[in-house]
Amino acid sequence: MLFSLVALAAAKTVVTFGSGDGAAWQTVNDPVMGGVSESSFFQGDSSGIWKGKVEIVPFLKKPGFCSLRTPGLHEKGELVDLSNSDGLIVRASAAKGGLQNFRVQVSTEGAGRGMMEHMIYSAEFTATEDMKDHFVAWRDFKCSYHGKNMDWFCPKIYHELHRVTMLGISTHYPLEEPTPFQLELASISTQEHTGPKKECPFGAFKRKIMSFMTPFFIDHVREIVQPLIV
Asked: Which of 22, 64, 77, 134 could form a disulfide with 125 if both were Cys (CB 3.0 to 4.6 A apart)?
């Protein structure tokens, strides 16, 4: 199973890092445009260490990116339901002197269509030297395709949370210069939703139309059928 779900008081653990967690984490570094950024991932007993360096992409003359994902690039995981939550909690710490700005990533079954199936929703968090929880709200997630904003094309993430196919961490993009990083990761959890559930606007519109049409439809059918049974 891709992610293990464990109930907590106000949160639900989506995945833990460390030996025996069961998730197949893979590094994905500058997969296009001839990038040369590198990173590696080591599983400890109770956490994972992801480290590397974001380098200049020769073709673009700009820094690329590194990411850590489960499952990896071009692999499809089982559908995971992250609905009924307000966002993700990343428990992590960053090494002193390295990059501190990272992104948490989510891919869903309905985020892209056709050739643009690798759409990713992501949002920023800033890690510190101390191991602590970093909450990232769903409202802060933006949809992109190879770094280009695709919010106009992707469904709102609120309507995709029940069919998540990938979870990951990425370096901040774009960086101003080549930057080393080391991030210790303990877990990623959901913060449970306590307010009213967000509803797809099309569902509300459909109900309004039906509430208007139903009395008319019943009266119309009665006018047709009643003469036939008299």
From this structure: 134
Run of H or E including 14? strand 11-16
Structure tokens at 93: 């710490």
Residues 93-116 have pLDDT tens digits of: 999 999 999 999 999 988 876 656
Would you give the distance in Å from CA 125 to the centre of its chain?
13
Q: How far is CA 93 from the centre of its chain?
A: 20
Q: How far is residue 57 from each of residues 27, 73, 103, 178, 180, measured CA to CA in Å?
A: 17, 19, 20, 10, 15
The gap from C-alpha 135 to its chain's centroid, in whole angstroms, comes to 13
Residue type, position 11, single letter: A
Point out which residues pair with 29 in neighbouring strands: 66
User: CB under 8 Å, gap of 24 or more: what pairs does 218-222 form?
Assistant: none
With contact defined as beta carbons under 8 Å apart, do 81 and 5 qualify? no
Place of tokens 């071009």: 74
Helix count and strand count (H, E) for the chain? 1, 16
